[in-house]
Amino acid sequence: MRGIEFHNREKETIEIRAILDRRPTLITFVYGPINSGKTELITHTIEELPDEYVVFYINLRTKSLSSYDDFIESLFEMEIAADGALKKGVGKETLAIEEVYSEAMLEDRCRYLLVDGFDEETTMAFLEANVLSEGEKELVRHHCGGKPICLVELANVGERGQKVKGMLTLEAGEIRPRIKVLKIANKKILFEGEEVELKYENIIKILDGFSDGGSYAYEMITPEIVYPVKENILFVDPVRGIIKPQSWLNLLAIREVVKDV
């Protein structure tokens, strides 16, 4: 079974090593969509460090974060980790990172390292290494983009056309009920300390924004953005000020769901 050689993350590895080689002055947030390789990147980098290095790494995915205060507490629960620590955020935790990014108290005290899917060159190099036909390369690229876990899964099967169809059906099937339940239930979420009722039409409007593109800018975080982010449907990138699906396959599934409305 083929995997993805780690040298494809050389750029990010070099950046983290450069951070660790300097005297710690800032908190580094390593963030990105789910299954984009954040944990593997950090773990691999730490394992390759000389023995005299001591890295304090907090995985925010393992923390229960129901508020901004919970997020801050998790960062500083270890006194020794206050400076120079590596933090990893994914999914709903990026909402807390968005608050940190806009929080004046932490201004100029943090840096942010995005770990996303592979770029076009790395993606095509991986597909070439797995000896896919030109048609198969286009099929996989169209449905996976540069998502590592998706690329590996499709590279390791024979009937890729059937597998892709099944993956897309499954993805749409997971998203559809999470959205359609809003038509029959008065679902509420906690937003800015208050319970806010979600409106089906407003959620659809957010998702419909991906009909012609893979991402778009947001002006502020709203309940309609918070809900699909917490459901791991969308990803918030606070540094670039955009929202986007968690993966390219996720994007295609969202378009299928919106088309059925």
UniProtKB/TrEMBL annotation:
Domain of life: Archaea
Keyword ATP-binding among UniProt keywords: yes
Segments forming domain ATPase: 6-77
Keyword Nucleotide-binding applies: yes
InterPro entries linked: Archaeal_ATPase_domain (IPR051667), ATPase_dom (IPR011579), MJ1010-like_2nd (IPR049081), P-loop_NTPase (IPR027417), WH-like_DNA-bd_sf (IPR036388)
SUPFAM superfamilies noted in UniProt: P-loop containing nucleoside triphosphate hydrolases
UniProt cross-references to Pfam families, sorted A to Z: ATPase_2, MJ1010-like_2nd
GO function terms (MF aspect): ATP binding
Domain Uncharacterized ATP-binding protein MJ1010-like C-terminal intervals: 185-258
Keyword annotations of the record: ATP-binding, Nucleotide-binding
Family as reported in the entry's similarity comment: Belongs to the archaeal ATPase family.
Protein name per UniProt: ATP-binding protein
Lineage: Archaea, Methanobacteriati, Methanobacteriota, Stenosarchaea group, Methanomicrobia
